[in-house]
């Protein structure tokens, strides 16, 4: 099967010439063969993609029965943050642990993320990442409306090479354990953000848990000012791939952001043609 990512490579090259930092990798899920890569070992900010590491730790604790899916977690004033998510607009002061994980996966819910992270602890998430062999990928901090000089400059960082391998391991049932991978994969399949690479797949953003036209997707996205990042796995009738695309760019001009999203969409077209 021929993989043609020429247009995607050209699109990323244009972004780089415009001053952006780009990193991408696409692999065949079955063989592990690299289909496309651009500076995939470069470490860049990945915004909300780092929340995946928290989901892995939560799922591992459920598997170890350290926590129950029915554990109720309260939101505290220190957890409050704006941005992505819906819990900040709801009246419920507490939610079960697995509901919070679903909110984090489905909407990138910042409040739910902060509550979960406070309950689990950042050190535990970092240890889990190290146990998974991650050296260039890490969750650095909680969500904050403003980052001061004493705070981590980014929520998370990662390399396309490591993130693509991590998502492939989740899809294959190899991240921590088969049951942990399955639970995290089910959460990631809820993601409603199909605005980047996945915008090419023509799936319903709010309902794509089941296969649609032979396609099934699990993914996590990250958005911050000057950062767009997506990692995921797309299965199709002919093949399956794991992928990561991250772009760090000057976000002072709206057209530049549009160019970034268009480039990510172009890579998505190459992925779709390969699996479908």
UniProtKB/TrEMBL annotation:
<dbReference type="Pfam" id="PF13354">
    <property type="entry name" value="Beta-lactamase2"/>
</dbReference>
<feature type="domain" description="Beta-lactamase class A catalytic">
    <location>
        <begin position="26"/>
        <end position="245"/>
    </location>
</feature>
<keyword id="KW-0378">Hydrolase</keyword>
<dbReference type="InterPro" id="IPR012338">
    <property type="entry name" value="Beta-lactam/transpept-like"/>
</dbReference>
<protein>
    <submittedName>
        <fullName>Serine hydrolase</fullName>
    </submittedName>
</protein>
<dbReference type="InterPro" id="IPR045155">
    <property type="entry name" value="Beta-lactam_cat"/>
</dbReference>
<dbReference type="InterPro" id="IPR000871">
    <property type="entry name" value="Beta-lactam_class-A"/>
</dbReference>
<dbReference type="GO" id="GO:0016787">
    <property type="term" value="F:hydrolase activity"/>
</dbReference>
